[in-house]
UniProtKB/TrEMBL annotation:
InterPro entries: 3'-5'_exonuclease_dom, HRDC-like_sf, HRDC_dom, HRDC_dom_sf, RNase_D-like, RNaseH-like_sf, RNaseH_sf. It comes from Leptospira kobayashii. PANTHER family: RIBONUCLEASE D (PTHR47649). This is Ribonuclease D. Residues 299-379 form the HRDC domain.
């Protein structure tokens, strides 16, 4: 199939009206979005790419005030919508425009179920089409207008290959008896509501080399991150663009005077940061606090169930020879054990994960929460990869970790 890299820029109401005439006749749409998230604190969709019947439509939501015409297409159960990493795009489109989705396929989830070496779009395009996608424009500022020709070409290619890739993946998923599982995951992704994240917009454990700071220095890093986050939120700018991590590290390590702080961070911010650096803190952050995960705030009974759930997950991973990313997360397991469902119907009502997982994992998970593990409940499940391939990848990951250490 010849891939068309040309595009149709849709940046007026009339252009959208004309595009919708063609899109409404489609049975398959390949969709992607570009966001401002690399530049702004509050991300917004800056471009919507839709590929249909070999045509690449680039829809500009910053210039078109009314996109309601797209809603029926996205909600139509007779039109297949293909994404790569559907969760990100669908939640963004729900957040900004209130769109709803049915009949979705996700080539990223599929790549993981098919145990491909990587799950990035660039990798799957290379795998199926022997084409290397340029990622030069990946971190472009998509909010600035006019968009440049190279940005538009880049955006068009992000959807140009999805249909042919999905058709090949669909065939392989069916051949390996993984299609129903994949379909259920797609349906769950499409049905998830957008929920605004609460709390702080950062995790100190992810700060570069945080393990190498002293407990007191970590406390100062945390206070600087909080200050930066609040400023970033007020001016709607990505935090690392307000003050970069290297400069924050330098300030904590070198303890500059107020004059130097104002030189580094500006007069007002420098003065405030200097105050944070010289303040006395009685609550340093120990190394053990950095490794806290979901579950460490559980009571004794809940923690026992959580440990049982994690053992159950390892059993599933071993039996199915699969990646952890396809299994219920710690957050999902905790939501389940706290809700304490007594049967499959109650578990399904929680809407924590897909119906396939409820049906195929639910019985053994509910049993495991009580401390009883029954592998026979899982033995009928299809292995995601061969034992040899699973062990080879596991060894490769272990070797990589050892080299990094």
């Amino acid at each position: 199939m010849q891939i068309n890299s040309n595009y149709i820029l849709v940046d007026t109401a009339k252009a959208l009206e004309l595009a919708l005439i063609n899109l409404k006749q489609s049975k398959i749409l390949s969709i992607d979005t570009e966001s401002s998230g690399y530049y702004t604190y509050f991300p917004k969709v800056c471009l919507i790419q839709i590929n249909s019947n070999g045509k690449n439509y680039l829809i500009d939501p910053l210039k078109i005030t009314n996109l309601k015409g797209l809603a029926p297409l996205f909600a139509d159960p007779n039109i297949l919508k293909i994404f790569h990493s559907a969760q990100d795009d669908i939640k963004a489109l729900k957040r900004d425009f209130g769109f709803q989705f049915t009949n979705v396929a996700d080539t990223m989830i599929s790549s993981r179920l098919l145990s491909m070496e990587q799950s990035s779009l660039a990798f799957v395009v290379e795998h199926y089409h022997k084409v290397s996608l340029s990622k030069v424009e990946q971190k472009s500022n998509w909010e600035i207008r006019p968009l440049q020709t190279q940005q538009l070409r880049y955006a068009a290619l992000d959807t140009a290959y999805l249909e042919t890739i999905w058709l090949k993946m669909e065939e392989e998923l069916k051949r390996r008896n993984l299609y129903e599982e994949a379909k259920s995951e797609f349906e769950f992704t499409a049905s998830e509501d957008y929920v605004e994240k609460g709390g702080e917009g950062f995790h100190i454990a992810k700060f570069p080399d945080i393990i190498n700071f002293t407990p007191l220095e970590r406390r100062k890093i945390l206070e600087l991150l909080r200050y930066r986050d609040e400023k970033a939120k007020k001016i709607n700018k990505a935090p690392f663009r307000v003050f970069n991590n290297d400069r924050l590290s330098q300030a904590v390590k070198e303890q500059p005077n107020e004059e130097k702080c104002m030189e580094w961070f500006g007069k007002k911010d420098g003065s405030e940061i200097y105050k944070l650096l010289i303040s006395e803190y009685s609550d340093p952050i120990e190394t053990s606090e950095l490794s806290k995960r979901h579950g460490e705030d559980l009571n004794e009974e809940e923690d026992k169930k959580f440990q049982n759930a994690k053992k159950w997950r390892l059993r599933v991973m071993r039996i199915r020879r699969m990646e952890h990313s396809l299994l219920p997360s710690n957050k999902q397991l905790i939501a389940i054990l706290r809700a304490n469902p007594q049967n499959i119907e109650e578990l399904k009502a929680l809407h924590v994960f897909s119906d396939w997982k409820v049906e195929n994992y639910g019985p053994s998970l509910l049993t495991a929460l009580g401390g009883v593990h029954n592998d026979s409940m899982l033995s009928k499940l299809v292995s995601v990869r061969s034992k040899e391939a699973f062990l080879a990848k596991k060894r490769k990951k272990q070797n990589h970790s050892q080299k990094e250490e």
